[in-house]
Amino acid sequence: MGDPTAFGNLPPCDELIDGVVNAAQGKSNNGYVNACGAPAARQAIAKFYDVSEDDVVIGSGCSGVLELCLTAMLDEDTNILVPKPGFPLYQVIADSHGAGVKEYRLDPATGWECDLDDMEAQIDKGTRGILINNPSNPCGSVFSEEHLEKICLLAAKHKLPIIADEVYGGMVFGGKKYVSCATVSKKLGNVVPVISACGLAKQFLVPGWRVGWLTFHDTDCGAAKEIKAGVMRLAQVVLGATHLCQAAVPSVLCPEGESEKNKIAAFKKQLNETLEAQSSFTCEALQKCHGLRVVPSCGAMYVMVEILIDEFDGSFEDDVGFTGKLLEEENVFALPGSCFGAKNFFRVVYCAPTDMLGKAYERIGAFCDAHKKK
Fold first, then answer.
1. Peptide bond into 85 cis (omega under 30)
2. Burial of residue 347, with CB atoms counted within 10 A of its CB: 0-12 exposed, 13-18 middle, 19 or more buried
3. How many Å apart are CA 10 and CA 158, to the nearest integer?
4. Which of 10, 2, 1 is nearest to 270 (CA)?
5. I need a labelling partner for 308 at 20 to 30 A (CA). Which of 74, 91, 192, 319 fits?
6. What are the backbone angles phi and psi of residue 76, rounded to the nearest 5°?
7. Each residue of 145-171: b (16+ CB within 10 Å) or e?
8. What DSSP state is assigned to residue 174?
9. Best CA proximity match to 231, nearest among 34, 68, 93
10. DSSP of 31-51
């Protein structure tokens, strides 16, 4: 599953832990707080993303703020464009409101970039926005600035806001550079409103803390302004994320001392180096397995592996059958690509310790050899 803390080998940022300890000992973060977020946390997020405090809404994890955003945008019989392969939460939220999603293709041949022709073809009169996920879950891909420019211009052409799920922002390696969608739109002259979703969960290795946020960029006109107002009203329903964990946000987004800044930079560098090493190890190991083709990862903590079904003995018909038998016979669990809209792929999370990953990949190799087509 997508929890980087599951095996204990990736500890959270010390400065974030210290921030919570200090907040608890200060005894001033125990009460209710503004439903859109604690003022100090909103101010730190606003400073980090170069927006105003009024353009920040904090919620219960990145998934929680995405629910606020999509709920505010979608009415019955409307839709939002989402990536395929993509995180299934987007469809779950849309379906719960009688709305829907329309999937645009990500192309494995181009490192999982968006098929822009397919994206444009999905737009209809019911479309309310375009959602992108960069870096990607489940693909582990990272969009170039040039590719983001094309997405922004396409969205602007059709007057559709972009919802940018950037919870893995900054978790990049292999020579790739992360650029936020809002930064790209701003460089183009603020051609399209961007609503960015992020949080502490993955970049600081604390998914259980449930602190996520939306930042609204150039949304002071038309429907985009109404979306922000709707999100702020919806935030009143559950009163947001825990006050105590919000109190630690400034310590990692806007540290005051040089020592703290250096420690946070070192934490991020070490995390990305670890992920890069484990991604390379994963891709090299699985590429050697019979009947598998790996699309290399350069961000987040995932890689997608294609199953060449015709090279196997017929014991399974698709990715669901493959992963089910793999679990039965080798006790290795991987999510079938069908969970993300990618038939005959499976997703690997490579956050476990290298020795554990090595054992898993040996078993996958043995499984593939056992089911070779004779």
1. yes
2. buried
3. 42
4. 10
5. 91
6. -55, 135
7. eebbbbbbebbbeeebbbbbbbbbbeb
8. T
9. 68
10. S---TT--HHHHHHHHHHHT-
d(CA 38, CA 28): 12
Single-letter code of the amino acid located at 171: M
Q: Which fold has domain 258-370?
A: Aspartate Aminotransferase, domain 1 (3.90.1150)
The model's pLDDT over 16-53, given as tens digits with 9 standing for 90+, comes to: 999 999 999 999 888 999 999 999 999 999 999 999 99
No. of helices (H) and no. of strands (E), the chain:
13, 12
Q: Which amino acid is at 322?
A: F
Q: Could you tell me the pTM of the whole model?
A: 0.94
- Residue 141: how many other CB atoms lie within 10 Å: 30
- Distance from CA of residue 176 to its chain's centroid? 16
CATH of domain 14-253: 3.40.640.10
Could you tell me the two tokens for 148? Answer: 């983001």
- In tens digits, what is the pLDDT along the chain, a chain of 374 residues? 789 999 999 999 999 999 999 999 999 888 999 999 999 999 999 999 999 999 999 999 999 999 999 999 999 999 999 999 999 999 999 999 999 999 999 999 999 999 999 999 999 999 999 999 999 999 999 999 999 999 999 999 999 999 999 999 999 999 999 999 999 999 999 999 999 999 999 999 999 999 999 999 987 777 789 999 999 999 999 888 999 999 999 999 999 889 999 999 999 999 999 999 999 999 999 999 999 999 999 999 999 999 999 999 999 999 999 999 999 999 999 999 999 999 999 999 999 999 999 999 999 999 999 999 88
- Calculate helix-pair angle for 14-26, 258-287, nearest 10 degrees: 130
Least Cα distance to 197 among 223, 215, 222, 177 occurs for 215
* Domain locations in the chain as residue ranges: 14-253, 258-370
